[in-house]
Amino acid sequence: MAADRRRRRRAPRTEKTSILLVTNGALTEKIYLEELKRRALRSEAATEQNFAVKVVFINGETDTLIKKLSSPHGDTKSYDEVWLVVDEDGRDRHPFLDNCTRQTTKARSWYGVVSRPCFEVWLIAHYEQVRRYADQKDAQTHYRRLIPDALGAKEIPSDFPYDAVGDAVPRSHLDGTPQPPLEELPPMPGTGMPHLVQRLGLVPKV
Q: What Pfam families does the entry give (predicted)?
């Protein structure tokens, strides 16, 4: 009887990992990350790794995001990982990435996800290969050509090809340009989003 009870015992569940996704992009980034969360929580990785995901928008520059989140009222204590998704916006993001590293402790990891020159690079990669862009406006013009005319530059179509996320990873930077580690700036054009979708189990790690 005791042996039967032991056999019927369930395998111990791994402790839940709480992941916070933060962006200062009120429209495009927030919409995309909410869908990313929905898909991630339905994935096998969510079951196997037992993680929870929350998406938050905070208005302001990158230093404002970190200041608010790291304050006593920042509400990050209940999370194991904090991912900050931001654009380059013509600014040097090395200090931002360094700041994320400094915020990391044994209890909580902070990661900066930078898109150069902007988040539209990642969206374009779901449709086709990115190109060289003179600036943020150039990349946004490319994105607008790929979506219906009725939509604005900061909108995502209802039929956006989210399922092409696996193809977006290699297409989000120029051919022959490797994806650097997360703690380094991505190439231009490029983005740290491949690291996030890999972490959430939506594409295999390479």
A: RloB
